[in-house]
Amino acid sequence: KGRLPWPEAVRIVKAVAEGLAAAHGQQPAIVHRDLKPENVMLPDGGPVKVTDFGVAKMLEAAHATNTQSVGTLQYMSPEQIDAREIDARSDLYSLGLVLYECLAGAAPFHSSSPRELLNQQCTQAPPELPEDVRATLPAGVEEVLFRMLEKAPDARPANAAEVVEKLTPFVSATARSGRVAPPSNTMVSTPHPPVPRRNDTVELVERAMQPRQISTLVALTLILVLSLVAGLTAYVLRLRIGAGPEASSDPGPSGQTVSGPRR
Predict the structure, then answer these.
(1) Annotation says 250 is catalytic
(2) Which residue has the higher pLDDT, 67 or 55?
(3) Catalytic member of 34, 44, 52, 87
(4) Which of 162, 69, 161, 163 is nearest to 122 (CA)?
């Protein structure tokens, strides 16, 4: 994307320095040895991630000396190139190269010839930042940047924690809280109303099988109605059973009732 606004660049580099401070504080210290933009991840809405400590872990596991020349040429410190003893300040040189590229849009040293590129890293001072960048960049940030790019490790900041301390005043409160403000040209769309969730067949069946709850008033009313219906039904049945089928009778000549079949 080219140049980054200096507040964004400082926010990113400060977060990387915090990660390096944690790694350098291990016992023994973990020196990244291959810090470059490709190893700095910016998750959407999340904290900055420093990745690919594989070189550091590989050397530690192999019990190799810390003077081996490993890393990416364009982001290697002079002591790495010369295979001299390195420490955490080598990562700070690489971090300075990353910060320079964030601000200027290009690395300070570049050449199609690897030999020339290595020579630039070891002997040439980094070029000044473009004038339009310097016009808005705080002097304190520029001072930290070029201190990290010193060829001699002793001239650089003592450790990553010092870089964090120097850059913290230039990081906004929003960035310190971990919230990233959206770009000014971000279009904000009106949220759509929620789409009703369609119930599938399984859910409908499960819902139908679940026990249903009713209020106390409704339950009492149902009990009362059922009791009345049961009582009325029992009363009617008793009346029908008590009456029973009566035998037919006719009065005889003497007025007595003679039962039996008619002739």
Answers:
(1) no
(2) 55
(3) 34
(4) 69
